[in-house]
Write a structure and sequence with these properties.
CATH superfamily of the largest domain: P-loop containing nucleotide triphosphate hydrolases
Distance between the termini: 79 Å
CATH topology of the largest domain: Rossmann fold
Number of helices: 12
Number of domains: 3
Order of helices and strands: HHEEEHEEEEEHEHEHEHEEEHHHHH
CATH class of the largest domain: Alpha Beta
Shape: globular
Structural class: alpha/beta
Radius of gyration: 24 Å
Helix content: 25-40%
Strand order of the largest sheet: 10-9-8-11-13-12
Strand content: 15-25%
Length: about 375
């Protein structure tokens, strides 16, 4: 057994469901490679660094290292530790704190890189505030990517438009209308001034004691500013955005978990340079349910919604949303390919490119 101080850890976001999962996990050590040392206890991971992690026991923060055995096991499962994880930690004879196990998370958000490998983002969060500025940061296609990243992970998405004070009411209404035509009906949409106390009041329904929220969005969207507003103090550094594109300068460089005065926890995240959702075709269809519904009305059963006649999708859905759907679908299908299949696909693309260049030469009368 391990020490679980429920009252003390509640301020770190320990929910009854997570406490039960931790008790169940630690009660059956026969399923684990080793028994826990004396003094082992449940703690929450608040930061991940290159060689160490930060853990919090509800009263104090501890710098810890991860046992190589656990790192190999997580790597074999194509995952890794993430901010928000609940772990079992213990100090050795020299006072060094070690992470012995990760309690299986109740929710987990991960992304993929260009090679298809998974990278953990956060774990054990209840709500994801998808933050997007109403300045030049406004990008519905990128927002759809964040939505797909979150959906299917057990996390509730809420779209938060920041910098509402920087645009005229007509522009705000137009932005809302544009997004409402692209967002699922069950996704909340709010517009706030991230520096105003009214923003914290508007988001209060998702910030009750024991809840954990994560702020996700591009650099410069106002995530750190909103974090500071929710906390009522300057927890995170903030910076100006570039004038020509309203993009931030990556003031936040790592994910970190903070406690809020009302008992909730918030995780601030840097903007993701590579935003490829870890999803499949079924979960992608959930985010594009309007396309899936209209596809049943297309003239052809195998309609690809490109240039076929009688396509109900092209008639009922905006062209930009359809293009984004096709792009995401290609990425999802590529992630399911083996290395050999990817090489074959690349060879086919190269062959098509050579054939197209030869046709152009013939057309121009070149030798």
């Amino acid at each position: 057994m391990i020490e679980i101080d429920v009252e003390r850890l509640r301020s770190m976001g320990l929910t009854p469901a997570m406490a039960a999962e931790a008790v169940s996990f630690s009660t059956f050590p026969a399923s684990l490679p080793e028994t826990f040392p004396p003094g082992a206890r449940l703690m929450r991971l608040t930061e991940v660094h290159r060689e160490t992690v930060e853990l919090h026991d509800g009263e104090h923060s501890h710098s810890a290292r991860v046992l190589p055995r656990l790192m190999r096991a997580l790597d074999d499962d194509d995952t890794g530790l993430a901010v928000g994880d609940w772990v079992i930690g213990a100090a050795d004879a020299h006072g060094q704190c070690w992470v012995h196990e990760r309690v299986p998370p109740l929710s987990h958000i991960a992304r993929r890189d260009a090679d298809g490998r998974r990278h953990p983002v956060v774990s054990n969060v209840d709500t994801a505030f998808l933050v997007m500025g109403l300045d030049d940061d406004f990008n519905p296609r990128r927002l759809e990517r964040y939505l797909i990243l979150v959906q299917g992970s057990g996390v509730q998405p809420v779209v938060v438009l920041t910098k509402a004070d920087a645009v005229p009411p007509q522009a705000l209404d137009e932005a809302r209308a544009q997004l409402r035509g692209r967002l699922p009906a069950n996704v909340e949409l709010l517009a706030v001034n991230g520096r105003s106390a009214e923003a914290a009041q508007a988001l209060q329904p998702w910030l009750s004691a024991g809840q954990t929220v994560v702020l996700m969005g591009s650099s410069g969207a106002g995530k750190s500013t909103l974090t500071n507003t929710l906390a009522g103090t300057e927890l995170q550094d903030t910076g100006a955005v570039r004038e020509h594109d309203s993009r931030g300068k990556h003031t936040t460089t790592s994910r970190s978990l903070h406690r809020l005065p009302g008992g909730a926890c918030v995780i601030d995240t840097p903007g993701l340079r590579t935003l490829r959702p870890d999803t499949d075709e079924a979960r992608l269809a959930l985010s594009f349910d309007d396309i899936a519904t209209l596809a049943l009305q297309c003239r052809f059963r195998d309609c690809r919604h490109e240039d076929e006649p009688g396509c109900a999708v092209r008639e009922g859905v905006g062209a930009d949303r359809v293009r984004n759907y096709h792009k995401l679908l290609r990425e999802v299908r590529r992630d399911t390919l083996t290395v050999l299949e990817r090489h074959q696909q690349l060879s086919q693309w190269k062959a098509r490119g050579r054939l197209a260049r030869e046709r152009m030469k013939l057309k121009r009368g070149e030798d």
